[in-house]
Design a protein that fits this description.
The complex is a heterotetramer, with two copies of chain A and two copies of chain B. Chain A has one domain: 2-enoyl-CoA Hydratase, Chain A, domain 1 (Alpha-Beta Complex). Chain A is built from 14 helices and eight strands. Chain A is α/β, with parallel strands linked by helices. Chain B has two domains: about 30 residues, no CATH class; about 220 residues, 2-enoyl-CoA Hydratase, Chain A, domain 1, CATH 3.90.226. Chain B contains ten helices and seven strands. In chain B, strands 1-2-3-4-5-6-7 form a seven-stranded mixed β-sheet, with helices on both faces. Chain B is globular and about 50 Å long. Classes of the chains: A alpha/beta, B alpha/beta. Chains C and D meet through helix 7, helix 8, helix 9, helix 10 and helix 14 of C and helix 4, helix 5, helix 6, helix 7 and helix 8 of D. The complex binds zinc ion (2 copies). One zinc ion binds next to loops of chain B.
Chain lengths: ~300, ~280, ~300, ~280
């Protein structure tokens, strides 16, 4: 498809976007402009090939993980461990740190870098203990007025027998409920795989960002393909159908902003990726500064309550 | 490690289909339609709970003539232009034809033994009870209606999870309904949840588990990931009652298992306890 | 000892009581009067034999347990199960019921009546799951403005390996913290054994009652004897030393009121015991009616913060 | 089932006494007093943490000369006229003689690397670090002092539990300190807990586990019931690290295990994070 046709479709979408109820509620017109600029920056809608390339990049073995950003963005990092009930889930990180001199609580799923760490961190798929650890940390943030930053990077919550026994579904629900109650600013960013319920558990935030090559989806391409065509190999086709890429999520109003990555992807240059992410996080936090807690909470809920398309 | 996500199973069948929908999959007793209707779709031989459609469910719970349906005009859009084996729009039309419902959730005002409440009942027959934008919106409106009227919301769930065909917007119905439930809670009104077989994926991971009181029907499957997915990923042998109501009760996840014939008196009692208006 | 001497000692104690810091804080002078009446009603200080008799009565196999009172005092009882994390502890009861037409949340330890039930309820010794179930129910009460009634009857929290792994100490602390935060009225009554931390977990209430033949202690007589004399058989001597009986607890300001039992003890007549308890609970709740939630909380904390004797 | 209660063990010895207090019970290295003092009472051979008294603990944590002790005048009364092998008053006098402390807790204002905080440090040598009315009152006052000054409270615990000799009033120090911590939390200030060996019974079951951040020293015993009692009641073989800091970390009960030499920089970092005034 020639670029001009893409451009046309994009403009048309943006036009639709303006009138859709999903942009009602808390969103203000200034944001539409930013959104427009962002779409213009990204330039054109991704082809099926490009979408699949993003799926690959989002899962790239060398992609920076939560702790890679922690290391580069936060001073005085102090990791909190344990859910005060049952365990300490390596698939979830929670802690306190200084972001440019300001204390924040950071939570996020953590994938492993080597074979051993991958197993111990369960490939970034949290158990209920992990979500409980995260909400414990977020409640600490709320008590002390610290903003919450959440970095989302998970194929999904862990589908284990014990995870189910310990209430995986309820843990994800409760984690969202805790975020819906926060009276401190919360900014989420999808930094890799934003896989389904396991991801949304950490993403009920005031601002939801998404890195350029991250994906965010209701189901993995493989899972979708397995259900629709009984063939996980059709993942590429599935990804093309539901388009988990950042531009599409931005167009739908699911994310508020796309965070640029270094040319070629975040894995090429972790330091640069961290600088770009840090800039976006600080900008988002600055926008939320000074808004009273009750207002934050009301707008945050309204933002999510406005999502959906129906007639 | 497979990259298969696990929160969504939108198959229309909660379990391997029995030879005939009126044959009990547990003891193989066979019933006529009117027999099942009389027994509230509970097998009189073994107590198996057959799936129950939304409208008979409502009729079985509320005082005769007391139900006023709300938000009947909401229909799903097709934001992705989604096409798998068939277009999503075609699936929707087919589901509407088959069930007589506009989507997988029916909401409205009702009274149970003289106590008023808001009611939200899912129907698994509509695309596996999957939660898309319409289910999310209606559940949210039900929360608001209960909050405004100062009465509890009773939600009866039966769902395979988020509706894949609406993509990421389906996932957004999780935080949407959670936010609505928190608004309801802030208003000081209760959410009473009843999970029917099956309540899995995105519905379990949002409003269904946030009830002030959480009930389940006997043997209802209530797992975030489906048994097939768990089996596939962990390669473990699953316990016999994997994800079932009984296991959930044992592990402290729910308050009580209530057989269908006791559901109306139980909800009535809870409405009295939560001071629902008369 | 002749009664007159008892009387003297009692009066003297009451006199001391008036000036002690432990009666400062939230306590008002009207309460001192009630206290005085109560001491007068009980009449005289217990002898060592009488104290031991109370220990025996408090542990009597036929003594009414929490569910015996629930059955007799609450309409529309609905039991809540499970801690939403890990298990459903039979040693702890939690539920909703109507006390004379008013919805309350009731929590309490539960001993077993027969061999089988005793094992399944662990002799009324809760695991962390039990305390978590109780605080979940109390948080429900707080959300909905229902008063909390807690009935205390436990030899102590369960001293098990798994209980420790799951944070027994933290669960007891957290349960108290939840009660310290409640903005609804809370009335506790020790109905049998008020054993140590396992008991206080449910007793950080606005009003703390104690049945005539209940005991309330920092350690069981056997435990105390085992530590002091390396001989649990010296329990009677230990009980005489720290006097866990209701009158002594009342004198110290640890409990606010003694709830009378049927002549001979609560086990003689469960119905009568329940009527007497019900009356006391309703009276205490009535006294707390109309006090704003923040005041309740402030006074409740002040009540406990005033306990202790030092120079 | 024995009726033995389990929350209190006030033995003066946290573990079987070694042949000599300066001999490492783990690797049997022997140290001179000045060697131990220099190493913060940590065995340089094997890392074993010897018990550390309150005053050297404070000296090891705070900026030189920055500590101002508070509530030095509080002394225990004997509300029960308690007499076991000896009168409680005699035990108190003896403990005061032995330790030079008025009771098992020292509180005061301090600075750590330039950041101010309130500090509460227990001393196991004073009647097994047991918590009676004075410990409860001082901990409560420390909460208030931190709240009023707008700074975190750092509590370093080492305790066998509630002080039996004060009977039910000792038990009341649990809710008393919990109420004080909740007042501190409502003021928006943090409680930072450091559990040293052993922190058991009533202290574990009250303020020690309510910290916004909970640290422990390596191998510290942190169990509600002592190992002996658990063994006696359950008749099970206890795991090797029963109740130890390492087990507590694995089971999610604490945030970190911090070796003693790293405690000062760690607390300093936490004071920066919690915006303690300079
Ligand atoms: Zn059957
Ligand atoms: Zn050594």
């Amino acid at each position: 498809m020639p670029p001009s046709e893409h451009e046309l479709r994009l403009r048309e979408r943006l036009g639709r976007l303006r009138s859709l109820p999903l942009l009602g509620g808390a969103r203000i017109s200034g944001e539409l402009e930013r959104l427009q600029r962002q779409i213009a920056r990204i330039g054109e809608e991704a082809t099926d090939e490009e979408i699949w390339r993003k799926v690959e990049l989002a899962r790239h073995d060398d992609r920076p993980y939560t702790l890679d950003y922690v290391e580069r963005l936060l001073d005085d990092w102090f990791e909190l461990h344990g859910d005060r009930a049952l365990g300490d889930d390596g698939a979830m990180i929670a802690g306190l740190g200084k972001l440019e001199g300001r204390t924040v609580v950071l939570v996020g799923q953590q994938k492993g870098r080597d074979i051993h760490e991958r197993a111990s961190r369960r490939f970034g798929m949290p158990n209920p203990e992990g979500y409980r650890k995260a909400w414990h940390a977020m409640e600490l943030a709320d008590r002390h007025g610290f903003p919450v930053i959440s970095l989302v990077d998970t194929p999904g919550a862990y589908p284990g027998v014990v995870a189910e026994q310990h209430g995986q579904g309820a843990a994800i629900a409760r984690s969202q409920a805790v975020m819906a109650r926060l009276t401190v600013p919360a900014v989420a960013c999808v930094i890799g795989e934003g896989g389904s319920g396991g991801a949304i558990a950490l993403a009920l935030a005031d601002r939801v960002l998404m890195q350029e090559n991250a994906i965010y989806s209701v189901i993995s391409p493989e899972g979708c393909a397995a259900i629709l065509w009984r063939d996980a190999g059709q993942a590429k086709k599935a990804a093309a159908a539901f388009r988990p890429d950042a531009v599409h999520c931005l167009e739908l109003g699911v994310v508020d902003e796309i965070v640029p990555e270094p040319h070629g992807g975040a894995h090429i240059d972790h330091d640069m990726a961290a600088r770009l992410l840090g800039h976006a996080l600080r900008e988002s936090l600055a926008e939320l500064d000074g808004i009273p807690g009750d207002d934050l909470r009301r707008r945050r809920r309204a933002r999510f309550r406005s999502l959906g398309v129906f007639a | 490690m497979a990259k298969i996500d696990v929160s969504v199973e939108t198959d229309d069948q909660p379990s391997p289909p029995p030879s005939h929908p009126n044959t009990c999959p547990s003891c193989h007793s066979h019933y006529r339609d009117d027999e099942l209707e009389r027994s509230l779709w509970v097998c009189e031989q073994c107590g198996h709970h057959f799936p129950m459609r939304a409208r008979p469910r409502i009729a079985s719970l509320v005082d005769p003539g007391s139900f006023t349906e709300e938000a009947t005009d909401l229909h799903s859009e097709d934001p992705l232009g989604f096409f798998d084996l068939r277009p999503y729009t075609e699936r929707l039309a087919e589901a509407e034809m088959k069930t007589g419902l506009a989507d997988a959730l029916v909401i409205g005002r009702a009274a149970i033994e003289g106590r008023q409440c808001e009611l939200a009942v899912m129907d698994f027959a509509f695309m596996g009870g999957s939660m898309g934008s319409v289910v999310g919106e209606k559940l949210s409106r039900a929360c608001d209606a209960a909050a405004e009227a100062g009465m509890p919301l009773i939600a009866v769930t039966s769902s395979g999870g988020a509706r894949m065909q609406e993509g990421i917007l389906a996932l957004m119905q999780l935080p949407k309904t959670v936010a609505a439930v928190e608004d309801l809670h802030d208003s000081g009104n209760a959410l009473l949840c009843v999970m029917a077989h099956p309540t899995t994926g995105g519905v379990l991971a949002s409003f269904a588990t946030l009830g002030d009181v959480v009930l389940a029907e006997p043997n209802a499957l209530m797992s975030f990931a489906g048994p097939r997915v768990v089996q596939e990923i962990t390669r473990e042998k699953l316990p016999d009652d994997f994800g079932r109501a009984e296991q959930n009760l044992r592990y402290g996840q729910i308050d009580a298992i209530v057989p269908r014939p006791e559901l109306r008196p139980t909800l009535s009692r809870l409405l009295r306890l939560f001071d629902a208006p008369e």
